[in-house]
Amino acid sequence: QVRFRDDYLRAASLVTELRQVDLSLRRASNGALLDLFGAGSEGPVENPTSRALDYRLKTLIGRDGKQAVVASRGTITFSRGSFQLHQASMDIDLQIERWPPGLLEEYYQSYLPAASWSGVLNADLHLKGTLAGKTHVRGAAAFKDLRLHSAQVAAGTVSPGSGRVELEMEVQAKQMRVARFLLRSEEVSLSAQ
Predict the structure, then answer these.
(1) Using the 8-state DSSP alphabet, how is residue 1 labeled?
(2) DSSP output for 48-110
(3) What is the rounded distance in angstroms from the CA atom of residue 51 to the CA atom of residue 32?
(4) Using CA atoms, how far apart are residues 150 and 144, in angstroms rounded to an integer?
């Protein structure tokens, strides 16, 4: 079990638990294991080719009794002289199974027009960019029994039921630029490009 504590730009810490963690890290340049904790090293790595790493992760992620299965793989390239994840470049694939409402909403709530939602999501996404800068997102999400509660979008609740969303967009700071959006469900069909 791993406990992840996030204090970045927050007044109160967020603690997220990762259970049944299967994680593999390798240097992207030559396949040797990356030594993140300094065992056997003589200080920071100065070779620029060693700042990129390939990873593979599968885990249960949870907080406050809610959990989902997350699998991800890709390459993360750290800026010269820094191992700060929010400034690193990423090129990753992300698969999510059984994502419940409210799980980690502090990270994505500002991007959604909904005040709250219910249902379950499964997603398959590709992300390329940086967390601190611009990130290109492409992929699809399947949803079951989805209900969005928002006064911004509609007077009351929007209930598309079960269906699928395909999207391509760029996310930067608190701005989202959608290049393609296709929603098909039992109740709603919407396309935007």
Answers:
(1) -
(2) GGGGEEEEEEEEEEEETTEEEEEEEEEEEEPPTT---GGGSEEEEEEEEEEEPTTTTHHHHGG
(3) 12
(4) 18
Residues 61 and 70: beta-carbon distance below 8 Å? yes
**What does the block give as tokens for 140?**
């699809």
**Residue 21: alpha-carbon gap to chain centroid:** 17
As given in the structure block, the two tokens for residue 109 are 């709530």
25: its two tokens: 């890290």
The DSSP H or E segment spanning 31 is none
In sequence order, the 6+-apart residues with CB closer than 8 A to the CB of 43 are none
Residue 139's pLDDT is what?
Answer: 97
Give the whole-angstrom CA distance, residue 124 versus residue 92: 11
CA atoms of 91 and 100, how far apart (whole Å)? 25
Q: What is the pLDDT of residue 151?
A: 65
Give the SS3 label for residue 111: helix
67-82 per-position pLDDT tens digit: 999 999 999 998 776 7
| Cα 146 from chain centroid (whole Å) | 20
Nearest residue to 137 (alpha-carbon basis) of 181, 98, 107: 181
The mean-pLDDT minimum among 44-48, 83-87, 135-139, 174-178 falls in 44-48
- What gap in Å lies between CA 189 and CA 42, rounded to an integer? 58
CB atoms inside a 10 Å sphere around CB 96: 19
Structure tokens at 107: 């990270």
